[in-house]
Amino acid sequence: MATLYYIAIGKKSSTGHNQPIIRMTNEDSSVQVVDTSLQQRMTGSTSAATGSIQLILTDLTCTDTASTYYCRTFYLNGETGNDETTANITARTYPEQIEMFPSPDRVQYDNGQVL
After folding, report:
1. Residue 100 in domain
2. What is the pTM of this model?
3. What is the domain extent for residue 29?
């Protein structure tokens, strides 16, 4: 039986460095939010029994997509070990669903006038 010490989900920087978003340790089974700029857009769950952690981001932005995310673990299974797996995330938008309306609603605008 393995003992899990640490599990984290994060994003790889452009230079390949790990930037944790959330993590959980064996000392505190609650999720610790590392990247607080995402806190309003994330939900997640953990299971200390299975040593799992889940992250769900909502209201995706351009910086969330086309990125490499990772999950990293540190554990003891006879000897100390660690694993890391990555996944590339790409989100698509559908421009035909975007609607734009001028404000205020006018028939004609002058050159250089703010819409």
Report:
1. no
2. 0.67
3. 3-90
Task: Determine the longest span between alpha carbons in the chain, in angstroms.
Answer: 75
In this predicted model, what pLDDT tens digit does every residue of 78-113 receive, in sequence order?
A: 778 888 888 877 666 666 555 655 555 656 666 776
Can you give the chain as a three-state secondary structure string?
CCEEEEEEEEEECCCCCEEEEEEEECCCCCCEECCHHHHHHEEEEEECCCCEEEEEECCCCCCCCCEEEEEEEEEECCCEEEEEEEEEECCCCCHHHCCCCCCCCCCCCCCCCCC
Which burial class, exposed, middle or buried, applies to 8 when counting CB atoms under 10 A from its CB (0-12, 13-18, 19+)?
buried
CATH number, residue 42: 2.60.40.10
In the chain, the amino acid numbered 9 is: I
Sign of torsion, CA 12 15 16 17?
A: negative
Select from 12, 52, 9 the least CA-distant residue to 32: 9
